[in-house]
Q: What sequence folds into this?
């Protein structure tokens, strides 16, 4: 037996590109059932019509009967309705960015906005394409989160993003990154990276430490650079000459920091304290010291930065700098939903002293 496959019907000549229409009710369907114009139905469903007229009641009843759902994206692209707020980062790194995103989302959702989270993987072309797409969708604001290169190239790129977003009435907000003085229209909510590390070094000096190492990525990104400057500030305040040999190059992972620490302590047994760019690095440092039989803090004290939740549960618990990530997100969120921007903000941080630091060894 031979099975014959029928020819497919020819495509409509005037068909428009894009997804096929689903079976949902349209605004025209609601207007027809309620016996009103489409303009009236639109005003009622947008909440811009008086609520006591018979036509108002008929529109709501018709929408409920037909299961009509307002196309929020279409409305936002026409400049009406609730717009989304986008949280954009290179990667979603642990609880720090999650806490910042939580602060922004609390504000956005309280105002009825959709909150979206996007990552770029550090790909600049992907980042630029994402900003363009978000502007096409009439986003209300983009929160560009985390460390960026401290270069003129980044400033030009940020200006381009700001211009793209401004065309649709949106704005660019830097979170956890210092302001760009030449571009005051780009909002910035940051926290005191430099002062935080400086306070950690000051704490160690007060305990008698003089040979203090710094563990960090030591690149031209804003966060590592500011925290490294804080380390140098702390040494200078104490009259300790900066020694480049006491800087430990490491990626922002506990494994990288552990490996770098193993090699470093073999060359520098005189070091009595280590200040780390992040808590993630500090965890790796502590692991390497434990594995080497070096007691914390009796032989080497360790300071981190970020106050991730897990570091309070280490043995010993980690002395670290607590940054106000949630508050940064909240303030950025307030600007994103239309709040007043009074200029760049740099929020204070707090040194949290725990068991990983102690007096210099005798």
A:
């Amino acid at each position: 037996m031979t099975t014959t496959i029928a020819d497919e019907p020819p495509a409509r000549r005037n068909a428009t590109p894009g997804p096929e229409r689903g079976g949902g009710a349209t605004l025209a369907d609601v207007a027809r059932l309620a016996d009103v114009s489409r303009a009236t139905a639109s005003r009622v469903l947008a909440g811009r019509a008086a609520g006591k007229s018979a036509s108002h009641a008929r529109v709501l009843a018709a929408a409920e009967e037909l299961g009509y759902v307002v196309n929020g994206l279409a409305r936002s692209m026409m400049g009406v309705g609730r717009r989304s707020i986008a949280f954009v980062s290179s990667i979603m790194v642990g609880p720090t960015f999650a806490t910042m995103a939580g602060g922004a989302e609390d504000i956005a959702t309280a105002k009825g906005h959709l909150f979206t989270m996007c990552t770029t993987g550090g790909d600049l072309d992907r980042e630029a394409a994402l900003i363009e797409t978000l502007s096409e969708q009439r986003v209300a604001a983009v929160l560009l989160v985390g460390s960026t290169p401290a270069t003129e190239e980044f400033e030009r790129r940020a200006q381009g993003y700001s211009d793209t977003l401004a065309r649709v009435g949106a704005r660019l907000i830097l979170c956890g990154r210092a302001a760009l003085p030449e571009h005051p229209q780009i909002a910035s909510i940051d926290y005191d990276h430099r002062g935080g590390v400086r306070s950690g070094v000051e704490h160690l000096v007060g305990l008698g430490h003089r040979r203090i190492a710094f563990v960090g990525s030591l690149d031209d990104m804003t966060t590592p650079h500011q925290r490294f400057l804080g380390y140098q500030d702390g040494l200078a305040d104490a009259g300790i000459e900066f020694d480049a040999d006491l800087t430990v190059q490491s990626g922002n992972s506990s494994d990288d920091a552990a490996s770098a620490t193993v090699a470093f302590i073999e060359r520098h047994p005189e070091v009595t304290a280590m200040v780390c760019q992040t808590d993630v690095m500090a965890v790796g440092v502590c692991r390497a010291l434990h594995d080497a039989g070096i007691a914390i803090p009796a032989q080497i004290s360790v300071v981190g930065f970020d106050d991730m939740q897990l570091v309070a549960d280490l043995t010993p618990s980690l002395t670290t700098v607590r940054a106000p990530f949630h508050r940064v997100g909240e303030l950025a969120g307030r600007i994103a939903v239309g709040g007043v921007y009074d200029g760049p903000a740099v929020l204070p941080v707090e040194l949290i002293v725990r068991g990983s630091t102690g007096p210099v060894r005798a």
